Amino acid sequence: MIGYVTVGSNDLAKAASFYDALFAELGAGRFMEEETFIAWAVSPDKPAFSISRPFDGKPATVGNGVMIAFALETPAQVKALYGKAIALGATDEGKPGNRGDSGFYAAYFRDLDGNKLNFFCM
Predict the structure, then answer these.
(1) φ, ψ for residue 113 (rounded to 5)?
(2) How far apart are CA 93 and CA 113, in angstroms?
């Protein structure tokens, strides 16, 4: 159902380097790019993630309560991608682990602009 998700950035070049390295681990690459917008996906017909300078020209801010979750296949992938994000400068918001008894395994972090993201598997 999700086509794409966009988060704001105040330093597009820095954010692009972060996401290039992070999403390369998933086999995703840039598939759309303009002066103020970059999008990544594993293929153009799959859901995408993008960063953008805000259209109104004001500084990008983090939405309180907003989080984007990326579905992975295994706990090992969740651990690896979380570790990669932290190595790239992300900050911890919840180390990899089981959440409850539902088989939900997740790790939470904030990117370089403070956007909250999550890697998970079931």
Answers:
(1) -95, 0
(2) 14
Q: Which two tokens stand for residue 56?
A: 């109104």
pTM for this model (two decimals): 0.90
Task: Give the integer Cα–Cα distance in Å for 11 and 57.
Answer: 13
Q: Which domains are present in the chain?
A: 4-54+66-121 (3.10.180.10)
Write the CA distances from 118 to 17, 82, 95, integer angstroms.
Answer: 19, 8, 10
Separation CA 67–CA 5 (nearest Å): 10
Share of the chain above pLDDT 70, in %: 100
Distance CA(29)–CA(23), nearest Å, equals 7
